[in-house]
Amino acid sequence: MSDTLNGKGLALVPKTDAKQTLKDFKSDQEVRWCPGCGDYAILAAVQSFLPELGLRRENIVFVSGIGCSSRFPYYLDTYGFHSIHGRAPAIATGLASSRPDLSVWVITGDGDALSIGGNHLIHALRRNVNLNILLFNNRIYGLTKGQYSPTSEIGKITKSTPMGSLDKPFNPISLALGAEASFVARTIDSDRKHLQSVLREATAHRGTSLVEIYQNCNIFNDNAFEQLKDPEIRDDITLRLEHGQPIASASKAVVRAANGGLDVVPLAEAGDRVLVHDAHNPDPSVAFALSRLDEPAFEHVPIGIFRQVERPAYDTLMAEQLEEAVAQKGPGDLSDLLMGGDTWRIG
Amino acid sequence: MSDTLNGKGLALVPKTDAKQTLKDFKSDQEVRWCPGCGDYAILAAVQSFLPELGLRRENIVFVSGIGCSSRFPYYLDTYGFHSIHGRAPAIATGLASSRPDLSVWVITGDGDALSIGGNHLIHALRRNVNLNILLFNNRIYGLTKGQYSPTSEIGKITKSTPMGSLDKPFNPISLALGAEASFVARTIDSDRKHLQSVLREATAHRGTSLVEIYQNCNIFNDNAFEQLKDPEIRDDITLRLEHGQPIASASKAVVRAANGGLDVVPLAEAGDRVLVHDAHNPDPSVAFALSRLDEPAFEHVPIGIFRQVERPAYDTLMAEQLEEAVAQKGPGDLSDLLMGGDTWRIG
Amino acid sequence: MTKQVQQLDRVVIRFAGDSGDGMQLTGDRFTAGTAEFGNDLSTLPNFPAEIRAPAGTLPGVSSFQLHFADHDILTPGDSPNVLVAMNPAALKANLGDLPKGADIIANTDEFTKRNLQKVGYDANPLEDDSLREWRVHAVPLTSLTVTALEGFDLSKKDAERSKNMFALGLLSWLYHRPTEHTISFLEQKFAKKPEIAKANIAAFQAGWNYGETTESFSVSYEVKPAQLAPGVYRNISGNQALAYGLIAASVQSKLPLFLGSYPITPASDILHELSRHKRFGIRTFQAEDEIAGVGAALGAAFGGALGVTTTSGPGVALKAETIGLAVMTELPLILVDVQRAGPSTGMPTKTEQTDLLMAMFGRNGESPVPIVAPSTPSDCFDAAIEAARIAVKYRTPVYLLSDGYLANGSEPWRLPEVSDLPDISTEFAVKTDEEFQPYVRDPETLSRPWAIPGTAGLEHRIGGIEKANGSGNISYDPNNHDLMVRLRQSKIDGIDVPALEVDDPEGDARVLVLGWGSTYGPIAAAVRRIRKSGGKVAQAHLRHLNPLPANTGEVLKSYDKVLLPEINLGQLALLLRAKFLVDIISYNRVRGLPFKAEELAGVIQDVIDSE
Amino acid sequence: MTKQVQQLDRVVIRFAGDSGDGMQLTGDRFTAGTAEFGNDLSTLPNFPAEIRAPAGTLPGVSSFQLHFADHDILTPGDSPNVLVAMNPAALKANLGDLPKGADIIANTDEFTKRNLQKVGYDANPLEDDSLREWRVHAVPLTSLTVTALEGFDLSKKDAERSKNMFALGLLSWLYHRPTEHTISFLEQKFAKKPEIAKANIAAFQAGWNYGETTESFSVSYEVKPAQLAPGVYRNISGNQALAYGLIAASVQSKLPLFLGSYPITPASDILHELSRHKRFGIRTFQAEDEIAGVGAALGAAFGGALGVTTTSGPGVALKAETIGLAVMTELPLILVDVQRAGPSTGMPTKTEQTDLLMAMFGRNGESPVPIVAPSTPSDCFDAAIEAARIAVKYRTPVYLLSDGYLANGSEPWRLPEVSDLPDISTEFAVKTDEEFQPYVRDPETLSRPWAIPGTAGLEHRIGGIEKANGSGNISYDPNNHDLMVRLRQSKIDGIDVPALEVDDPEGDARVLVLGWGSTYGPIAAAVRRIRKSGGKVAQAHLRHLNPLPANTGEVLKSYDKVLLPEINLGQLALLLRAKFLVDIISYNRVRGLPFKAEELAGVIQDVIDSE
Ligand SMILES: Cc1ncc(C[n+]2csc(CCOP(=O)(O)OP(=O)(O)O)c2C)c(N)n1
Ligand SMILES: Cc1ncc(C[n+]2csc(CCOP(=O)(O)OP(=O)(O)O)c2C)c(N)n1
Ligand code: SF4
Ligand code: SF4
Ligand SMILES: [Mg+2]
Ligand SMILES: [Mg+2]
């Protein structure tokens, strides 16, 4: 856990000595995504990652909203809650803030998290509830059969936008950073190793970690992330973010721009101006600038952990207040409470 | 309108030659805020600013949510809609995108806009509907008598948080920039001149303009912005943002930091490193970095227009599609539509 | 060999296969051919909520049922005469609905050991004796298709894809359907891939020829065109008819249509349809959620548009607060609820009538809203216009309660003459000499003026706080509040709705079957059966649920017994019992499916017999 | 001069002034003194939605009414015997409620020309003859206060602020209230500002002395302590009692309380109260909106907490979707709705009973939810425990329907012994030898196991899609859906609720007055009046609205007439009519105010007379 600030993410969750394998995390439910869907790869990556945590299976909970991606909990043999559209962060907030002994995950899609659920997402982020949020971004509404989503590119032709969509998409990383997130990362369905390395840090982080996962929907938005998978160009356009390392792809590098922002230049020209990634910078501004590098789209895409800073988790603070209240005045006594006001006796 | 990119904000709204004064914009309703409330100053500033626009009064609409601030529309003799909590941006989106001939304003509070209404706000911003959103930020829930709000500082003691609030507040400017806003500004209730100068640019901007107004609630959160009003320190901590001008207060200046971010240094030390403000920079990263300068609070506060870039407004694009559809296939004919499928005749 | 041709008056076919097998398309094309041929028809698509559940599994089965006849019919049929089963899952999932003696056309190629195991068949039912009570036609549809396409430059997989067209060809032969339309349809659909177009056409024709030549089918069937009322017809689904109705309402009201909506099954297709008709000046706004959808529609209505929002299931719950605001601000608004099986997420692709009481009461405070419910897919057109008429005339949100069955089901629709459509236009308020009062009421309708921004001299403020009647100023006056609560109620109670019509041919029935919404077809079909067998029963169907027609109580009380079948636990019954103190007999099944005519006929007969 | 002392059995006082005049505090203190003295009492605060509307205006008037007596009383009183009017607006706004002959104590200092004009008085009513039918005591409260505080180091403005304490002192003298409590209260409240504390105490004493010495008051009144049941009492408002009830439910169920809430009038005080008792392990979460509030509560319930959400008005509408999810997932959850005047924003500070049908039906699909309604402020305590008992035992969301009148009204409460409170604890599911089935049902209650995360071997998944009974797997099976719809309904229908008790002392009444919720007090007071005057009437009050007590129908049918007063347009009446086909007589007034006993007595008498 080299990059981990504190590694306390799951400190309160009971561990097991029993050896676990991928199989322990497979439920008996048949997986029901379209053949070829990127969700399969993510599921396999998560199932094979979980044993590494060494947690008691019963202390893991997956909470999801509604969407293709939100079916995820059914396929994991942990506790699970397939809730309603957009509300998973709220439901998970109640669970995680009252049960610090649980590892609580939120599974959500770009529609679920950023359209109907946008408000709960940004509030969870600023509160820093102890949650791992995996946002499956396929830039489309899968389950409702292919309308454009808040991450679809402008001009997208879909069933609901036959002449093209009009709205500028959200950049989930920028939005999260604007919402005071303490942990923000991006990875991709097809790169299991990277995906798992991000999950490793996300689970080690105590607080809300938002992991955007580029996910291919081969039915309604096939090849949305093709450039990042294309062996021809992939290494040139992928800027890997690793804390303490220069930010560069095979051929490009990130440097400071004259106007206070960031620029991408040919690696050869960069020299020692290459920006070294500081994921732990308390100021999210550089992380934000990094998140803007892929505007308009996919010329150079930062992948990895944009931001990872320590901040007390909401449930910790909440628990501390309860403890403090007891420390100050002793545990609550119902009889005392009732008798506590101005009372008088009759008879 | 020196700083205005296009000045097209109200190009489609009918003008009047009639001379207007503040009085024309006063409704017959008694103003019902607490004596001393900052809302009075904002109301007066808006009422005395509106004549400047020279619009037909009947083409101006104020839409609000719920909160003390949201009573604003009642006091203006224009069209008004005092709607429900948090939903004003959604309602205004329907109005503005179907009526480009209107000047549509949204009046909202920090609770209304950022708590219950957060999602509608960020979506309005990314869509760039032609709206002027005035966010009265008093960092408290006024109307419900003083609970902490999403902009209240951590540890705030209120009726609902007797041991102090736990959640990190939103920075409305950062959030808006993370949500792809094309126009973002901050001003303050007590500085009418500045407030009006910001409104001037906001109305000239076609698209969504978000104006955060620091507003004093003298009943539940008095003196929240005292530093910015205190003649002793005000000029030292206020960093005025003016496009094309160096960013500095009486004694401090903003410069680029070594790590790619921004720093505030004593003016004397800054020399020619002082950052020149570029509100029109297509990349919001520097604006974002500026929005972080006042973290944790009020050591140096940027005031003015953070960002002001041209981007097609949602209603324009929508109208263009309708026109294009007509251009391509002629205006809709109901009879043709009904007969348009596979039909057959009987009898 | 000349094959025997048998005449039938009606047939029910069900195509069933994997989600990826193209059964909906096959059904659609068969329907188009049947419509073109002139039969009356009714359809029932049935598909899983998953986009494409794993191949070969029971949850992945998708089916399409079609009923066609030489006379007018009312339902998609209780049980199929023919089942086309593209794989073992399709057979297993549908066999239960198949009456003994029906035909089964099974694609033997898919009855592999693996596929059989997937659905729990120990042995191949086509080979053991288990299907002896049906007439099984074992056809290797896949391999026949691949063989037929050998000359094409296609991978085997691509060739196999055309097996649904082979099946369509076979069925088209079996029922003497015309073929031209399907061929030109395929040419158009694959205009950009001519090789695929040709292959599909070839598969289609091979299917036809297979029927013509193989011994497996010794009889083919003819169903004569129906004697429908003269006119121009097209086949239409409820969602499409509803969208067209909204467009017509926009034209007939001279108000630009603004749709604020968030996608949700089974309402999404209305959004899709409307977004294709921008040349009517229609704005479709895909909102960030249901709340924003209805909010934007209300904002547009304030600006003088015909504001519409469409949704289903949990989406309805989310709109409640804003509907309350629309009640308070007394603005026109149309709320389309395509009811689906609940509660909560429920069964998104299944039908139900369980939102009636939600529509009536699902808001804080006393907030009455009129409710209109279409009865058949094509009736969605008229019901939409009627909802708009009420909304505009009475300045009120109106609920239009469709359901999943109407939405996706289809039937031939005799096109109305545009000149016969009602004029539902209204007048915006204009400046007069008097001071403008936004809550002054029209004495007839009790509606308030619709004064839209841009009108000089009518500047005013509305909102969700209680208003003084007349001036519209904020008012906390107790008596004003009581007055306003009653005025809002009286306005809705006073809406002009046509009288409830009773179908009681001889006027001597003692039992009335009442219904509302999509149960019309099965109820009417059941009533026919009863009458055919000499029974006497009256039928009435409510299109207006709020307010009820003025004569409703009278009608109910003029029968010994009133039977009310509903796909809920008795929601309309509750309203009628409360209002008229009539001991209505409810029949309720909440299975996510429409009633069957036979089932209802049995229930009606029981009620008659218990007299 | 020794003044005359008159004995009274009951008095109704109303303090009225500007929002900034501290009338609520004054009323609270008078109430505390009265409680201490041992009278029975009941209070009715009434304040504007604005925080502090412009001084001296009608909308800015805030009032506090207190009814106290030497016997047990049931309401805050129909009309005041004394009005304290701190300014002309307060006089004007309240005069209509004042019976002729009542006392008016008016603060003459505020009857300036400007203030009179502000509320439309042409002349000073204290000086012209217009108040001749009342007993007016013109007292320059402000200047007397300022004079009394001359020795203090206070600005004039600060001194003037104490005028409410002067008024309190005067009234305390007038009704022989004890003074110690008020003095120690002021010392505590202003502990950090001793000068202010002393000034307030001085003003209070000056008011007392003024009464004692001035000629303006020749009589003072004594109301003997009431003969209430023996026990320890405290005065409590409905919101506080409700919060205490929730805490007690947490203790008695051994479940940690989790409140997810979003502030809204008049429910916010429950959030405020609960957030002060963290040492009970109570977590209060101020959410970003109502949806997140109920969502978090449901999430916590999944984790084994006693999940609660509190709201009012439009907030209720927003929670509907999540309540549907709670119905589907069959988890315990308490939904507190402090009903306020609607629809939409309505009149936030006013009371109403208009959310009953929303609670019953306000969700998509068939989603039954039990409903419990407290009848008096202190009953909110017991009703909260009862709601929790049902939620926990039956694994269901439960609606607790309070209202604005109960929330802010107060009355003396005889404290229960903690040992007498019911044990409402439950068992979480534990691993057994059998495979765990999350939707297997307890045969008695039909509830499913509550298996919380952290329990090894019970890993399972729940959600909003229809579940197979037993296994809990997703199921689209039509018959399973019908079964589940009925099981969910049966579970609620089968909840054990106590029988409806009827108060019919001689057992020969022919008319029954039925009520629910906060109308208990006025109805019971009206019934007393009728009986006092020799009339016969029976009374019954429903605490359980869903399911209804098993004997409800029987009770209704055993009277010739059933009168049901409701502060809505007849919502419970609708349910009872539908269920029992009884022609209930509704009496409805929706004025944002509780009924008056006199008003109801009149209505009851009319019904008796029309027999
Ligand atoms: C309240 C509500 N509104 C709408 C829907 C319909 N709906 C289900 S999933 C979905 C969007 C799915 O998109 P996304 O979150 O991107 O998930 P994906 O299917 O792409 O994984 C919508 C609109 C719903 N189930 N509930
Ligand atoms: C749906 C709904 N939830 C809650 C409320 C109660 N409420 C009214 S205003 C408000 C917050 C006000 O805060 P803010 O937006 O900051 O406005 P301010 O009063 O401070 O100007 C709340 C919670 C409401 N009216 N409607
Ligand atoms: S529709 Fe797209 S996202 Fe959904 S399961 Fe299929 S491929 Fe995956
Ligand atoms: S409570 Fe605060 S924000 Fe509201 S009117 Fe009073 S001073 Fe202004
Ligand atoms: Mg998606
Ligand atoms: Mg505020």
TrEMBL record, chains A, B:
Thiamine pyrophosphate enzyme TPP-binding domain: which residues? 66-213
> What name appears for this protein in its UniProt entry?
2-oxoglutarate ferredoxin oxidoreductase subunit beta
Q: Which EC number(s) does UniProt give?
A: 1.2.7.11, 1.2.7.3
Task: List the Gene3D superfamilies hit by this protein, alphabetically.
Answer: 3.40.50.970
Q: Does the keyword Oxidoreductase apply?
A: yes
Annotated signal sequence range = none
**Family matches, as InterPro entries:** 2-oxoacid:Fd_oxidoreductase, THDP-binding, TPP_enzyme_TPP-bd
Organism (species): Nonomuraea dietziae
UniProt cross-references to Pfam families, sorted A to Z? TPP_enzyme_C
UniProt entry tagged with the keyword Hydrolase: no
**A biological process from GO:** cellular respiration
UniProtKB/TrEMBL annotation, chains C, D:
Its EC number is 1.2.7.11, 1.2.7.3
EC class name: oxidoreductase
All copies of domain Pyruvate flavodoxin/ferredoxin oxidoreductase pyrimidine binding, residue ranges: 258-469
UniProt key word Amino-acid biosynthesis: no
* Alphabetized UniProt keyword annotations: Oxidoreductase
Domain of life of the organism in this record? Answer: Bacteria
Kindly list the organism's lineage: Bacteria, Bacillati, Actinomycetota, Actinomycetes, Streptosporangiales
Q: Does the keyword Oxidoreductase apply?
A: yes
Q: What name does this protein carry?
A: 2-oxoglutarate ferredoxin oxidoreductase subunit alpha
Every Pyruvate/ketoisovalerate oxidoreductase catalytic domain range: 20-207
Query: Which Pfam families does this UniProt record tie to the protein?
Result: POR, POR_N
Record InterPro entries: 2-oxoacid/accept_OxRdtase_asu, Pyruvate:ferred/Flavod_OxRd, Pyrv/ketoisovalerate_OxRed_cat, Pyrv_Fd/Flavodoxin_OxRdtase_N, Pyrv_flavodox_OxRed_cen, THDP-binding, Transketo_C/PFOR_II
**Residue spans crossing the bilayer:** none
Biological source species: Nonomuraea dietziae
Q: Name one GO molecular function term.
A: magnesium ion binding
Please give the biological process terms from Gene Ontology that the record holds. response to oxidative stress
Extract the PANTHER family matched here. 2-OXOGLUTARATE OXIDOREDUCTASE SUBUNIT KORA, PYRUVATE-FLAVODOXIN OXIDOREDUCTASE-RELATED
